[in-house]
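Weekly modeling sync, notes
Attendees: AB, CL, MP (scribe)

Item 1: holo prediction request
CL wants a bound-state model with (R)-mevalonate before deciding which constructs to order. AB pointed out that an apo prediction alone won't tell us much about the pocket. Agreed to run with the ligand included and paste results into these notes for async review.

Input as submitted:
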Amino acid sequence: MIVSARAPTKVTLFGEHAVVYGYPAIVLSIPEYVVVEGVRSDKFLLRSGPVYLNKLSIIIGENAIHVARDTESDLVRYFSYVLEAVRSLGLNGLEISIKSRLPVGAGLGTSAAVTVGTVAVASKIAEMNLTKKEIAKIAWEVEKKVQGKASPMDTFASALGGALYISKAGSDWNIRRLSVENLPLVIGVFRKRKTTGELVKMVNEKLKEIKVIERVLETIGEITNEALKALENKDLALLGELMNINHGLLEALGLTNKEVACAIHSLKQAGALGAKMSGAGYGGAVIALGDDLDSLVSVMRSCGAEKVLKITSLSNGVEY
Ligand code: MEV
């Protein structure tokens, strides 16, 4: 019997990278899904779906991963840990197929969605009845192993859905669902030049070498808290300004590239209330808040976005 799960992707509205160091972040789960299908089997087999994932052809054997192409892909590395997660759920084998219309590592949490979807499917096959929160926790453990450091942001957004405010008190993370139905946003997906792991490491190295970086991360945390109030007050003009300031600090951390910088500049000229990179950076996602979403869509396209999404509602988390 085929068991399937649909796991949503996400955009980070505020706080990426700073969240890795315990500062707060705001994340939106978007209705752009990764579909994972699984069948009980005595071996591990991953079949890739159409479009972007077609680049991959992976057979996961007992101890090895054989990759036909795209060996550096985030997805390949993720799967070695997904395999561990699946095994930790007590399964001896699983045949999995993945369908996604988004490129892997685009900054939309695709890899986290793949992980969440796979854990959901595996847990159903193992008849474990895991809750969305339990799935999120297992998927987060996987991310921590892959990235070295990871916040619960991407995995919890995919598993739980909605708009989430993520903050840390002591060693505990708090995840609060916000009463945000929707925000007028356009998302542009640009070719990503570096992996999330590499970029998280780069920021970590800068933090060790340059004293002021700690203050930059702390300020991103303060911006996120101001943005939380702006969201609660539905003050879109202030929210947009705060997005611009957050982007400036991510740029200061060295996380943008030419395409992203060009898009941000053009989006503001076209009347966006705010624009920022979203996710790990160096390509990947750019988000823009505004009234005239169609003109922002055209700007994203003319700046070279490989995919453009208009957000009209949020997702409700993993369906399984
Ligand atoms: C990646 O989408 C977001 C980062 O903040 C990493 C993380 O939160 O784990 C860069």
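Recorded for review: Residues 49-72 have pLDDT under 50 and may be disordered.
Action items: CL to compare against the apo run; MP to circulate these notes.
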